[in-house]
Give the backbone structure.
Amino acid sequence: MSQSDWTAVDAYLVEALQAPDPVLEQALADSAAAGLPAINVAPNQGKLLQLLAQTQGARRILEIGTLGGYSTIWLGRALPPNGRLISLEYEARHAEVARGNLARAGLAKQVEVRVGRGVDLLPDLAGEAPFDFTFIDADKASNPDYFAWALKLSKPGSLIVVDNVVRGGGVTDAKGDANIQGIRRMMQMIAAEPRVTATAVQTVGSKGWDGFCLIRVVT
């Protein structure tokens, strides 16, 4: 199997199971027009995040890494009417695009995008915790810090999802770059943490070979 095969299968799955969505399509178009990197989740991955948050019954969602707001829209749509989502984004330009996309999606009142380094913003969220669902999809070198804070801001039963943990198989390289080292250190922290139970799964598709880590807070 090759990348073209994975992309074709993803295209079939999305066409078979997901109706066209002009709001999400425009969010991608606006992100591309603004020069944002095309590193958003795939449509079927976005739907997976939405389903996980809905299954979780999430009323409060934290996202670390907004980009253009594509995954944020998927997660925002999982919220009940009284739910709230806070998304953290380092780049002010990305946040501006995301806010426009969220407003078009009708989520401006439920979703707040905050700008700054995640490690600087996360301590300020203590008064708004606990979060039922956290999605981590930012700089991978900081994943250990993001996981530690996500755990602090969670409660028993909360779900934490971390994206891009396989990186084309690079995660097996003990001497990999800073992103790989961040993922590996996070994995070690998760394995040693008695308050959580976790697994990771590989994925292939239009975004290549990668994977998610799913962490449930148990105590």
